[in-house]
């Protein structure tokens, strides 16, 4: 009987809890700030959407530098600093007086979110046994799935009870994040001489991990398509008279993630990348196309299952793949490289694919998302071919 290295340690569980709470606030306020900006400042839909854009911009900037300086500043210091900044920015929502204040606040909160999620994801990668990395990251990223299911629900329902309830709820969660961060043991890695020399330069490899770029590019393409679902699925489902299916789309998506993320993590550990990535990419292609062709609730929700199986597994499988060829002292750069690509895709996706809607309609958006997944599959196959040719 083979011995399995322990996975469910106290610090592993605390990091999962912290990440879950982080993403509840992220998704709650993503929903809440749009309606808040429109109702409080008479902002247009595009101006309200800019609040999401500034948040993602803040996250991208902080990921770029937090991945570079994480082990120099110290993981624990950066975790506590970002947790306190997240708390401060969350409490500041009570004092917003104009649209400019909201945009600045969203940028600061995005920076805190990007910094903290980079620290947590890097620490998780470090404490999971190498033989169970895919499985461990699969379970860890379920915290994001649960946050994406619960956060929007609370962001929509709580204001109907009382407009300020979402803010008070976020305040309580943000305080809890600080408490959990204080209770979490964080591993310290002392940078070597080469790292100390490299960090003073402005070369590309000091900001990103180049070996993580292939999987990050695939994640970027997938994120563009998924962002179009996040932005347009509600309106699209009403246009095609499938409003009820649209209302439970993300519940079905989350259930698919809950099933397949841990399963693919175990398969990745045992059988390697290709056994996971080919089904994931095919599921993305067919999932986006099912949404594009949906003429019944069954077809639309089948798309939710397939996208949950496909794109829903990219963050976990992608993180495990991103760190496979790097030393522990570059885990932070590999992790931030992947998540920067996911953030970038989420940021540009609604804008790029949204330009198609006035001319070709909503269905064309998801056809394009499916074609981007085809490009990702071709790229993945090409990367395998050239890697084997290089190693031959």
TrEMBL record:
Molecular-function annotations in GO: transmembrane transporter activity
Principal localisation: membrane
Domain Major facilitator superfamily (MFS) profile: 7-388
Recorded GO CC terms: plasma membrane
Transmembrane segments: 12-36, 48-66, 78-97, 103-125, 137-159, 165-190, 211-236, 242-263, 275-294, 300-321, 333-352, 364-386
InterPro entries: MFS (IPR011701), MFS_dom (IPR020846), MFS_Exporter (IPR052714), MFS_trans_sf (IPR036259), Sugar_transporter_CS (IPR005829)
Name of the protein: Major facilitator superfamily transporter
Membrane-protein topology: Multi-pass membrane protein
CDD domains with a match to the protein in the record: MFS_YfcJ_like
The keyword Membrane belongs to this UniProt entry's keyword annotation: yes
Keywords associated with the record: Membrane, Transmembrane, Transmembrane helix, Transport
Species assigned in the record: Megamonas hypermegale
Subcellular location, record wording: Cell membrane
